[in-house]
Amino acid sequence: MEAPPENDLCSVCHGVFNTPCQANCSHWFCGNCIMLVWDHGSALQPCKCPLCRRQITLLVPTEASLSQRDMPEVAEILDRVEKYNRYFGGQPRGLTQRMQDLPFLLRRLLRELLDPHRSLPLVIRARVIIAMILSGAYVLSPVDFIPEAIFGIVGLFDDLLIVLVVFLHVATIYRSVLYRRHGGS
Protein backbone atom coordinates (compact mmCIF):
# COMPACT_ATOMS: atom_id res chain seq x y z
CA MET A 1 0.00 0.00 0.00
CA GLU A 2 1.21 3.48 -0.82
CA ALA A 3 -1.09 4.97 1.83
CA PRO A 4 -2.76 3.70 4.99
CA PRO A 5 -6.14 1.98 4.61
CA GLU A 6 -8.94 4.50 4.12
CA ASN A 7 -10.97 3.75 7.25
CA ASP A 8 -7.95 3.12 9.46
CA LEU A 9 -6.82 5.40 12.29
CA CYS A 10 -3.43 5.91 13.90
CA SER A 11 -3.08 3.40 16.73
CA VAL A 12 -1.22 5.92 18.89
CA CYS A 13 -3.46 9.01 18.73
CA HIS A 14 -6.60 7.22 17.45
CA GLY A 15 -7.08 10.03 14.94
CA VAL A 16 -6.86 10.42 11.17
CA PHE A 17 -3.30 9.97 9.90
CA ASN A 18 -1.19 13.11 9.77
CA THR A 19 2.05 12.64 7.77
CA PRO A 20 1.57 8.85 7.67
CA CYS A 21 4.61 6.56 7.83
CA GLN A 22 4.73 2.81 7.38
CA ALA A 23 7.04 0.86 9.69
CA ASN A 24 9.02 -2.19 8.60
CA CYS A 25 6.40 -4.31 10.42
CA SER A 26 3.78 -2.97 7.92
CA HIS A 27 1.84 -0.96 10.51
CA TRP A 28 0.94 2.69 9.82
CA PHE A 29 1.38 5.62 12.21
CA CYS A 30 1.30 9.39 12.13
CA GLY A 31 4.90 10.51 11.71
CA ASN A 32 4.69 12.69 14.79
CA CYS A 33 3.04 9.96 16.88
CA ILE A 34 5.73 7.36 16.19
CA MET A 35 8.40 9.97 16.92
CA LEU A 36 6.69 10.59 20.28
CA VAL A 37 6.83 6.86 20.98
CA TRP A 38 10.57 6.98 20.24
CA ASP A 39 11.00 10.08 22.44
CA HIS A 40 9.48 8.23 25.40
CA GLY A 41 11.88 5.32 25.02
CA SER A 42 15.64 5.13 24.76
CA ALA A 43 17.15 7.57 22.28
CA LEU A 44 19.92 5.05 21.62
CA GLN A 45 17.64 2.21 20.51
CA PRO A 46 14.89 1.92 17.93
CA CYS A 47 11.39 2.06 19.32
CA LYS A 48 9.08 -0.93 19.29
CA CYS A 49 5.86 -1.01 17.32
CA PRO A 50 2.96 -0.21 19.67
CA LEU A 51 0.91 -2.97 18.00
CA CYS A 52 3.23 -5.94 17.45
CA ARG A 53 6.25 -4.97 19.63
CA ARG A 54 8.77 -5.56 16.83
CA GLN A 55 11.67 -3.15 16.60
CA ILE A 56 11.06 -0.42 14.05
CA THR A 57 14.25 -0.05 12.04
CA LEU A 58 12.78 1.75 9.03
CA LEU A 59 9.97 4.29 8.63
CA VAL A 60 8.72 4.99 5.11
CA PRO A 61 6.63 8.15 4.66
CA THR A 62 4.03 8.27 1.91
CA GLU A 63 4.71 10.06 -1.35
CA ALA A 64 1.88 12.48 -0.47
CA SER A 65 3.70 13.39 2.76
CA LEU A 66 6.94 13.96 0.88
CA SER A 67 5.18 16.26 -1.58
CA GLN A 68 3.99 18.45 1.35
CA ARG A 69 7.56 19.06 2.55
CA ASP A 70 7.15 22.81 1.94
CA MET A 71 4.81 22.99 4.95
CA PRO A 72 6.95 23.70 8.07
CA GLU A 73 5.25 21.20 10.42
CA VAL A 74 5.43 18.40 7.82
CA ALA A 75 9.07 19.23 7.07
CA GLU A 76 9.93 19.03 10.77
CA ILE A 77 8.30 15.61 11.11
CA LEU A 78 9.98 14.30 7.94
CA ASP A 79 13.35 15.56 9.18
CA ARG A 80 12.86 13.64 12.43
CA VAL A 81 11.84 10.50 10.50
CA GLU A 82 14.95 10.84 8.31
CA LYS A 83 17.09 11.24 11.43
CA TYR A 84 15.49 8.11 12.91
CA ASN A 85 16.21 6.18 9.69
CA ARG A 86 19.82 7.38 9.71
CA TYR A 87 20.26 6.17 13.27
CA PHE A 88 18.56 2.81 12.96
CA GLY A 89 18.01 2.01 9.27
CA GLY A 90 21.61 1.11 8.53
CA GLN A 91 22.20 -0.96 11.64
CA PRO A 92 23.26 -4.54 11.16
CA ARG A 93 20.29 -6.74 11.87
CA GLY A 94 20.14 -10.34 12.90
CA LEU A 95 18.61 -13.13 10.86
CA THR A 96 15.40 -12.99 12.89
CA GLN A 97 14.88 -9.29 12.10
CA ARG A 98 15.63 -9.90 8.42
CA MET A 99 13.11 -12.74 8.28
CA GLN A 100 10.45 -10.54 9.93
CA ASP A 101 11.12 -7.70 7.46
CA LEU A 102 11.07 -10.01 4.41
CA PRO A 103 7.29 -9.94 3.64
CA PHE A 104 7.10 -6.13 3.99
CA LEU A 105 10.10 -5.50 1.74
CA LEU A 106 9.17 -8.10 -0.90
CA ARG A 107 5.59 -6.74 -1.15
CA ARG A 108 6.86 -3.19 -1.66
CA LEU A 109 9.51 -4.35 -4.15
CA LEU A 110 6.98 -6.31 -6.20
CA ARG A 111 4.69 -3.29 -6.28
CA GLU A 112 7.55 -1.09 -7.49
CA LEU A 113 8.65 -3.60 -10.12
CA LEU A 114 5.12 -3.85 -11.53
CA ASP A 115 4.25 -0.14 -11.38
CA PRO A 116 5.35 1.63 -14.60
CA HIS A 117 5.29 5.04 -12.86
CA ARG A 118 7.84 4.02 -10.21
CA SER A 119 11.47 3.93 -11.15
CA LEU A 120 13.92 1.69 -9.41
CA PRO A 121 17.46 2.29 -10.60
CA LEU A 122 18.32 0.01 -13.53
CA VAL A 123 21.22 -1.63 -11.66
CA ILE A 124 18.98 -2.58 -8.73
CA ARG A 125 16.28 -3.87 -11.05
CA ALA A 126 18.84 -5.96 -12.96
CA ARG A 127 20.35 -7.43 -9.76
CA VAL A 128 16.92 -8.43 -8.48
CA ILE A 129 15.89 -10.05 -11.76
CA ILE A 130 19.22 -11.89 -12.18
CA ALA A 131 19.07 -13.22 -8.60
CA MET A 132 15.54 -14.50 -9.10
CA ILE A 133 16.35 -16.10 -12.46
CA LEU A 134 19.46 -17.84 -11.09
CA SER A 135 17.61 -19.16 -8.04
CA GLY A 136 14.77 -20.38 -10.25
CA ALA A 137 17.25 -22.12 -12.57
CA TYR A 138 18.90 -23.84 -9.60
CA VAL A 139 15.61 -24.99 -8.11
CA LEU A 140 14.38 -26.35 -11.44
CA SER A 141 17.69 -27.96 -12.47
CA PRO A 142 18.35 -31.65 -11.82
CA VAL A 143 21.73 -30.79 -10.24
CA ASP A 144 21.40 -30.50 -6.47
CA PHE A 145 23.63 -30.51 -3.42
CA ILE A 146 21.15 -32.91 -1.79
CA PRO A 147 19.41 -34.93 -4.54
CA GLU A 148 15.67 -35.45 -4.10
CA ALA A 149 15.83 -38.91 -5.73
CA ILE A 150 18.05 -40.23 -2.95
CA PHE A 151 16.87 -38.30 0.11
CA GLY A 152 13.20 -37.68 -0.77
CA ILE A 153 11.60 -34.71 0.93
CA VAL A 154 14.85 -33.85 2.74
CA GLY A 155 16.34 -33.26 -0.70
CA LEU A 156 14.11 -30.20 -1.07
CA PHE A 157 15.95 -28.55 1.81
CA ASP A 158 18.78 -27.19 -0.37
CA ASP A 159 16.26 -25.77 -2.87
CA LEU A 160 14.36 -23.99 -0.09
CA LEU A 161 17.61 -22.72 1.39
CA ILE A 162 18.69 -21.23 -1.97
CA VAL A 163 15.31 -19.52 -2.40
CA LEU A 164 15.46 -18.13 1.15
CA VAL A 165 18.99 -16.78 0.64
CA VAL A 166 17.98 -15.13 -2.64
CA PHE A 167 14.88 -13.55 -1.06
CA LEU A 168 16.97 -12.24 1.83
CA HIS A 169 19.51 -10.82 -0.64
CA VAL A 170 16.78 -9.16 -2.73
CA ALA A 171 15.13 -7.72 0.40
CA THR A 172 18.48 -6.34 1.58
CA ILE A 173 19.05 -4.66 -1.77
CA TYR A 174 15.59 -3.12 -1.69
CA ARG A 175 15.92 -2.06 1.95
CA SER A 176 19.09 -0.14 1.04
CA VAL A 177 17.16 1.58 -1.78
CA LEU A 178 14.37 2.57 0.62
CA TYR A 179 16.90 3.71 3.20
CA ARG A 180 18.68 5.98 0.70
CA ARG A 181 15.41 7.26 -0.73
CA HIS A 182 13.83 8.08 2.64
CA GLY A 183 16.47 9.68 4.75
CA GLY A 184 19.71 7.80 4.23
CA SER A 185 23.04 9.42 3.55
UniProtKB/TrEMBL annotation:
Q: Where found in the cell?
A: Endomembrane system
Under the heading CDD domains, the entry gives: RING-HC_RNF113A_B
Top-rank taxon = Eukaryota
One Gene Ontology MF term: ubiquitin protein ligase activity
What InterPro entries does this protein map onto? DUF1232, RNF170, Znf_RING, Znf_RING/FYVE/PHD, Znf_RING_CS
Which Pfam families does the record associate with it?
A: DUF1232
Q: Per UniProt, which keywords does this protein have?
A: Membrane, Metal-binding, Transmembrane, Transmembrane helix, Zinc, Zinc-finger
Segments traversing the membrane = 122-143, 149-171
What topology in the membrane does the UniProt record assign? Multi-pass membrane protein
- Which residue intervals define the domain RING-type in the entry? 10-53
PROSITE patterns in UniProt: ZF_RING_1 (PS00518), ZF_RING_2 (PS50089)
GO CC: one term?
A: endomembrane system
Main location per UniProt?
membrane
Q: What is this protein called?
A: E3 ubiquitin-protein ligase RNF170
Q: Species lineage, top-down?
A: Eukaryota, Viridiplantae, Streptophyta, Embryophyta, Tracheophyta
